[in-house]
Amino acid sequence: MRTLDQIAVEGGTRLQGEVRVHGAKNAALPILAASLLADGVCVIEDVPDLQDIRVMVDILKALGAAVEYNPPVVKVDARRVSQTEVPERLMRQMRSSIFLMGPLLARHGRARVSRPGGCTIGSRPIDLHLKGLMALGASVEERHGFIDCRADRLRGGAVYLDTPSVGATENLMMAAVLAEGTTVIGNAAREPEIADLADFLNRIGGHVEGAGEDTVVIHGVKGLAGGRHRIIPDRIVAGTLAIAAAMAGGDVVLRHVRPRHLGAVLTKLREAGVEIEVGRDIMRVRSDGRLRAVEQVRTAPYPGFPTDLQAPFMALLCVAEGMSIVTETVFEERFKHVGELRRMGANIRVDLRTAFIQGVPGLTGAVVQASDLRAGAALVLAGLVAKGTTIVEHAYHIDRGYERFDEVLSSLGARVRRLRQP
Ligand code: EPZ
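Above: inputs. Below: predicted complex with EPZ.
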């Protein structure tokens, strides 16, 4: 980890221009894991060039897969995979590698991972993953911080998720696709990335129905072939850039987006006074930078307001006229950015999972710290409208979810620079 890794932002410029949004990190990660299931070469296109993707590629290689990664294309040949244990140092770098258990169990009858640590947004339990895998016939043992799963042959079954967990839904879909019989996942997550995973599995010979709705049905098949798949656009990156344009003011066109994946966010941006025109795969965001407060923003599982855009949207509300109320219902500790925004002059009061934001006429630049990828992005956005210079430290967090975030904003006219120790 670099000691000096900062993004410096000079506030006060409007944003103007056009950006192509990269492929979705949270679709690419499970689909790369699912390529372990295929008896052939999988070519995944429009994979974003991000730190988390590089960790996933390293994990696939460590398991014995042949992987060629030339951004934005990843080629995976998992036919010679021999390992079923995910190296601990890689598990530690990315907790979402927990959804390698499903494919490893389905294909090799065994999976050994170290229990993923929590992170700055909450404890991130995996009980729903483990309960679901056991419902499909897996045995699960936990010892010394490692989870050992075994199953000679997974059997289809009925699984009900107490919480519509994205990762658990994906893990169980991948475990069920080669199981004997049919699996029904009740209260499944409905995020677009789930449907993209199902599209990939069906394209390589799987039989998954209902992905994107709250009940997903997976009919087990004997085997899966290789195939080619293009990742859907990243709705969280698109939403972050739309919020940036709304705050800074200007006229920005986002290409390679799916506006229908951002329904709740566009509604709230329009409530704040932002003009948004949408096409099938394009969005135009216009704003004079003078925004209205939004009465109530509650994060929720899709199609609700995405928790991953709660921090960026809170940055916007800091300079919107009036009182806004933001409630974070998905993760228990996702307000780490509040203290940093306060350093910039924001007026925010937090009561448990609800933040009360009183808009202020302007923010002032400060040295602030990114605690996770979305909080980091939110602080850069706040810097766009702050008076003077904002330095966002620990900028490496942002690289986990945003391709060249500083360069993208600079291309739209923002005065943003990346400062790294040589
Ligand atoms: C996915 O994480 C995303 N990550 C997260 O994006 C996103 O914030 C989250 O879904 C919610 O949309 C990837 O897709 C790689 P969950 P995931 O399981 O799957 C509880 C980003 O910024 N839960 O849907 O880990 C959990 O504690 C990242 O790109 C259990 O209780 O999220 C949380 O409160 C951050 N038991 C809620 O469910 C379980 O076994 C939602 O978590 C699993 C989850």
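The mean pLDDT is 96.
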